[in-house]
Write a structure and sequence with these properties.
Blueprint: H1 3-10, H2 14-25, H3 29-47, H4 52-58, H5 64-75, H6 79-86
């Protein structure tokens, strides 16, 4: 899921969708998508033995580095440290 797909599904331009989404939720569509991806990855790190690279790919981050940066932004720790603490 990405922002253009969400806008298309809502039947709006990306710009209008972003404006309405922010007014309704208090966050940008990209912040929401990143939050959802981070939560999915967090659950996988806690409950599976899958490689971190696979989790990053399966949750839509595209790369381990993008997932690492999102984790640090949202949770204050990288994925490996998160798994070590909460698995």
């Amino acid at each position: 899921v990405d922002v253009p797909a969400l806008a298309e599904r809502a039947g709006m331009s990306e710009r209008t969708f972003a404006r309405v989404f922010r007014a309704e939720t208090g966050m940008t569509p990209m912040e929401f998508v990143e939050r959802c991806r981070t939560e999915a990855a967090r659950r996988d790190l806690e409950h599976t033995a899958n490689a971190i690279e696979r989790i990053a790919r399966d949750c839509g981050f595209g790369s381990m580095e993008r997932m690492r940066r999102a984790f640090i932004r949202r949770l204050g720790v990288g994925p490996k440290a998160y798994r070590d603490r909460f698995r």
